[in-house]
């Protein structure tokens, strides 16, 4: 059976899962249409591409809806595959856009006209051993996203700790950092439903990466968030990619184990030889990534997040020479 990667799926309570295509290996992002008294809330409308807009036109047509029926746009987080179409949808519907303050700050930092994010990222990767032609390819790839998140929406802020009504029920807003600083998950205790953005995904491990200028320890933030989310009684989770799934707790356990294995593997590799983050990244993810700047960026930032985590726990030590950092496992 070939899996459908675009179009709509009817869920319980009148919810509609809309698979919005994205032009990279994730295949699609999930948007959810949630029926309200005055129309629909739309969660994470997708990335702005011609194909995504075509799918939306089709899906709304099939459901007998117009853009004006979208009464509210809700964003779990700021990544372009979720946030990109928000401004376009707002222009067509007049709907308010809700996002956390932190997520919005990040979106502005990345996608504003005078953003220096691509340069900051290239500088970080240079310090960690990535060759210049690959850094430049990543910078050029990042630039292509600007059109896919335009226009930027006018937003109103929602924050963790608050609650809001969605589909006639009351949902709790939960801070879920690590994959994206500022990301919110939404939990409805009566049915045990969790809208989890990209924090917990079935079949894919959410990317956890170092973001220049943010500091901190993103993998630690991610693992702490997972252990907090593990305490919620969830019967159905609605993720940002792939399909809704029931075993939320089991999936969290798998993700934690995945990162523990990766951390151990990295220490093992660094006890055999001293490596830059880039060399380690290629050892872990393969040199085929050189052909795909988008995936290389994710892999490199993910490698750095694990290195930060290990360094902070004294399991590895950095050594700088000629402006480049190399890591070795700590002597036991
Ligand atoms: Zn994301
Ligand atoms: Zn995503």
TrEMBL record:
PANTHER family: ENDORIBONUCLEASE LACTB2, METALLO-BETA-LACTAMASE SUPERFAMILY POTEIN. It comes from Paenibacillus arenilitoris. It catalyses: 3',5'-cyclic UMP + H2O = UMP + H(+); 3',5'-cyclic CMP + H2O = CMP + H(+). Gene3D superfamilies: Ribonuclease Z/Hydroxyacylglutathione hydrolase-like (3.60.15.10), Winged helix-like DNA-binding domain superfamily/Winged helix DNA-binding domain (1.10.10.10). This is MBL fold metallo-hydrolase. Residues 28-241 form the Metallo-beta-lactamase domain. Counteracts the endogenous Pycsar antiviral defense system. Phosphodiesterase that enables metal-dependent hydrolysis of host cyclic nucleotide Pycsar defense signals such as cCMP and cUMP. It comes from the Bacteria.
């Amino acid at each position: 059976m070939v899996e459908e990667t675009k179009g709509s799926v009817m869920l319980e309570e009148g919810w509609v899962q809309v698979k919005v295509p994205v032009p990279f290996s994730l295949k699609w992002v999930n948007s959810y249409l949630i029926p309200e008294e005055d129309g629909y809330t739309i969660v994470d409308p997708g990335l702005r591409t011609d194909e995504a807009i075509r799918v939306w036109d089709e899906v709304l047509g099939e459901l007998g809806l117009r853009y004006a029926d979208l009464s509210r746009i809700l964003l779990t987080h700021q990544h372009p595959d979720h946030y990109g179409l928000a401004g376009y949808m707002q222009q067509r519907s007049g709907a308010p856009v809700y996002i956390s303050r932190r997520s919005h700050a990040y979106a502005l930092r990345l996608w504003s006209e005078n953003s220096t994010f691509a340069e900051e990222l290239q500088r970080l990767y240079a310090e960690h051993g990535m060759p210049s032609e690959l850094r430049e390819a990543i910078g050029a790839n990042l630039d292509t996203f600007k059109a896919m998140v335009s226009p930027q929406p006018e937003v109103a802020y929602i924050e963790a700790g608050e609650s809001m009504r969605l589909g006639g029920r009351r949902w709790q807003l939960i801070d879920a950092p690590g994959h994206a600083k500022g990301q919110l998950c939404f939990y409805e205790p009566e049915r045990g439903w969790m809208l989890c953005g990209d924090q917990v995904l079935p079949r894919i491990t959410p990317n956890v990466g170092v973001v220049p200028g943010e500091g901190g320890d993103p993998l630690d933030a991610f693992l702490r968030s997972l252990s907090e989310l593990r305490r919620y009684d969830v019967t159905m989770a609605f993720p940002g990619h792939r399909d809704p799934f029931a075993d939320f707790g089991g999936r969290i356990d798998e993700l934690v184990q995945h990162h523990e294995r990766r951390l151990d593997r990295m220490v093992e590799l660094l006890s055999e030889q001293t490596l830059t983050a880039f060399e380690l990244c290629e050892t872990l993810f393969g040199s085929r990534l050189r052909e795909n700047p988008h995936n290389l960026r994710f892999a490199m930032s993910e490698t750095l997040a694990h290195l930060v985590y290990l360094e902070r726990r004294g399991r590895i030590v950095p050594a700088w020479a000629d402006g480049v950092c190399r890591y070795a496992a700590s002597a036991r």
